[in-house]
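If you are new to this repository, start here. Below is one unmodified record pulled from the training split, so you can see the exact layout before writing a loader.
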Amino acid sequence: MLGFQLAKLPRVRLAHLPTPLYEAKNLTKELGGPRIFVKRDDLTGLGFGGNKTRILEFIMGDALAKGADVIVTGAGWQSNWCTQVISACRRLGLDVAIYKQAVEDGYDPKDYDGNHLLHFILGAEMVVVGHPWREKAAKAKEKLIEELRSKGMKPYDAGESPYRPIGYANGVLELLTQANELGVKIDYIVHANGSGMTQSGLILGSKALNTNIEVIGISISP
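And here is the target side for that same chain:
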């Protein structure tokens, strides 16, 4: 039933799916059980891979369905999310503008390295936001969206999209299909949790499929 409902939603294909499901036999042996499997979502393919690609398939699908021609989003200075958003926009022929949290006041935005270097190479419009982040980011986003609209563009706020959880609801469906083929029952899904987009989708998918899977998110920050 979940698969039929998801098929009705706007979507663009960005990821290399399904990603492999590997059994970590040596780790299982080292820990004395339980059986541990690894879902290789580092191999999704877009912008060096990662979990954001699944999420963006539905967000970008919604953006295109609504006639957007520029995507707006924001995150930390070395954000994987921004790297994947920019990569998706480049693949789909959309413009992209991002607002980024400065590492510290006075940080030189021309000091290119890591994801920040990729953002520059991929040609994203970038606005640097100082501290305090939450207060200034909201104002920076509003100003950026207003400026884009004044130019006759149609911005889409990817960070506020209601489609953010859908990618990993679909991911649970994919995972259970693979597990069933292997004759394996999944009891727990353990993952890294930052913004909550992945965890909300995993919980949504687990509930929608009437499973007893416990979803455990490990925070990436204190």
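Two things worth knowing about this chain: DSSP finds eight helices and eight strands in the chain. The chain has a mean pLDDT of 94.
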